[in-house]
């Protein structure tokens, strides 16, 4: 029997735990797995042997473990044995990648939307899937992320960027492509990537904050992502940051949306320098020392510091991962961010471990691919 004709692990349970350890942490020795799962070496051997015989796990060489005696054999998965497609639907385009079993991006494509009508978007998705599927031996499942509220049944309950209400995207994509599909909020997808394969790997508690067209927040507690019926509304967007800041469309003065969103930063910098600039131009001007742009960017940085301090104070994460297409602010406003943090954190509190991702658009797609990988691996 090969990996192609069996489910991830046939009996789930302890076998699944072993396979997951290898998927997420491999190459890894049997003794490391046994220690992580608090399992005896005998039980581990009994569980891993059928997984190796079935082709799910492979032995990939040896590593000396520093103790006397034989070096230990390492187990791994064959990452290229399975391929997944991950997509992000924005208000203007669909971004797509095809990945391996560990969500490493093999190929990417994108296509502009000419209409936000669901049937037009499905046609764009089907076309991208066909193009990407032709680049790999086979596709196991599709994952889709978007900014909005998504029900467990794969129905997009509301997606303001797309002006969608109650659209059964999962069923439509499955009909159009023939591949099993999973859809969820894009922040959930982003956070799941970080939990399994990214900067949150191995941490019990961490938070994710994304900067861009919106402000996104995700939190993992005891290695489980926290979700609720409100995941997808963007609750953190109205968190108060600056009592003297601009006003958001909902009427809050100085909330995160009004201070930190890309659109707000573009508006605020354009207003003070008297001409229209893009987000990157606004950051370039601040970096070059243009005083008015510098002041707005530092106010945004101070606001971000205030928000990071609040996250650290309230959810006590081991790390906060910053991502999203607007993440360059973290570099340009680093001093103001630190001041904002210091102003809202007890002097005895430990330094916040901040990690910024590249901000590359494929990060969202990689997250969506992890939704598909989890559907396959965990049989969700
Ligand atoms: Zn607001």
CATH architecture of the largest domain: 2-Layer Sandwich
What is the share of helical residues? 25-40%
CATH level 1 class label of the largest domain: Alpha Beta
Largest sheet: 5 strands, mixed
Structure ligands: zinc ion
Number of helices: 13
What would you call the shape?
Answer: globular
Number of E-type strands: 16
Structure commentary:
There is one protein chain. By secondary structure, the protein is an alpha/beta fold. It folds into three domains: 3-77, Arc Repressor Mutant, subunit A (Orthogonal Bundle); 81-192 and 363-378, Nucleotidyltransferase, domain 5, CATH 3.30.420.40; 200-356, Nucleotidyltransferase, domain 5. It is 39% helix and 21% strand. It has a five-stranded mixed sheet with strand order 6-5-4-7-11. It has a five-stranded mixed sheet with strand order 14-13-12-15-16, with helices on both faces. A three-stranded antiparallel sheet has the order 1-3-2. The radius of gyration is 23 Å and the shape is globular. Residues 1-5 have low confidence and may be disordered. Zinc ion (ZN) binds at residues 238, 248, 250, 252, 255, 257-258.
Fold topology:
Blueprint: H1 13-25, E1 28-29, H2 30-36, H3 41-53, E2 57-63, E3 72-77, E4 84-89, E5 93-99, E6 105-112, H4 118-133, E7 141-146, E8 149-150, E9 156-159, E10 164-167, H5 169-177, E11 181-185, H6 186-196, E12 206-211, E13 215-221, E14 224-225, H7 256-260, H8 262-273, H9 279-287, H10 291-315, E15 319-323, H11 329-332, H12 334-342, E16 354-356, H13 362-378
Parallel strand pairs: 4-7, 7-11, 12-15, 15-16
Antiparallel strand pairs: 1-3, 2-3, 4-5, 5-6, 8-9, 9-10, 12-13, 13-14
Helix pairs in contact: 1-3, 2-3, 4-5, 6-13, 8-10, 9-10, 10-12
């Amino acid at each position: 029997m090969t990996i192609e004709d069996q489910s991830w692990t046939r009996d789930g349970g302890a076998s699944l735990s072993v396979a997951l350890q290898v998927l997420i942490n491999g190459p890894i020795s049997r003794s490391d797995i046994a220690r992580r799962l608090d399992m005896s070496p005998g039980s581990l051997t009994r569980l891993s042997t059928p997984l190796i015989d079935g082709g799910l796990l492979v032995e990939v060489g040896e590593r000396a473990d520093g103790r006397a005696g034989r070096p230990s054999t390492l187990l791994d998965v064959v990452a290229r044995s399975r391929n997944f497609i991950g997509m992000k639907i924005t208000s203007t385009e669909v971004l797509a990648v095809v990945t391996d079993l560990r969500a490493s991006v093999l190929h990417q494509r994108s296509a502009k939307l000419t209409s936000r009508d669901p049937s037009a978007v499905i046609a764009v998705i089907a076309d991208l899937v066909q193009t990407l599927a032709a680049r790999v031996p086979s596709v196991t499942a599709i994952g889709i992320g978007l900014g909005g509220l998504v029900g467990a049944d794969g129905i997009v309950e509301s997606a303001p960027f797309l002006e969608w209400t109650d659209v059964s995207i999962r069923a439509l994509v499955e009909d159009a492509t023939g591949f099993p599909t999973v859809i969820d909020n894009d922040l959930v997808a982003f956070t799941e990537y970080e939990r399994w394969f990214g900067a949150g790997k191995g941490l019990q508690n961490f938070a994710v904050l994304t900067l861009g067209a919106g402000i996104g927040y995700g939190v993992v507690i005891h290695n489980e992502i926290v979700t609720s019926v409100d995941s997808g509304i963007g609750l953190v967007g109205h968190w108060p940051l600056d009592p003297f800041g601009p006003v958001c469309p909902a009427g809050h003065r100085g909330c995160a949306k009004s201070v930190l969103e890309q659109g707000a930063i573009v508006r605020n910098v354009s207003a003070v320098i008297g001409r229209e600039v893009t987000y990157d131009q606004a950051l370039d001007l601040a970096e070059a020392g243009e005083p008015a742009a510098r002041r707005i960017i530092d106010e945004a940085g101070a606001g971000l510091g205030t928000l990071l301090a609040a996250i650290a104070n309230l959810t006590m994460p081991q790390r906060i991962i910053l991502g999203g297409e607007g993440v360059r602010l973290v570099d340009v406003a680093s001093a103001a961010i630190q001041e904002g943090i210091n102003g809202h954190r007890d002097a005895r509190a430990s330094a916040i471990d901040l990690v910024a991702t590249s901000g590359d658009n494929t990060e969202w797609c990689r997250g969506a691919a992890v939704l598909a990988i989890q559907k396959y691996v965990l049989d969700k």
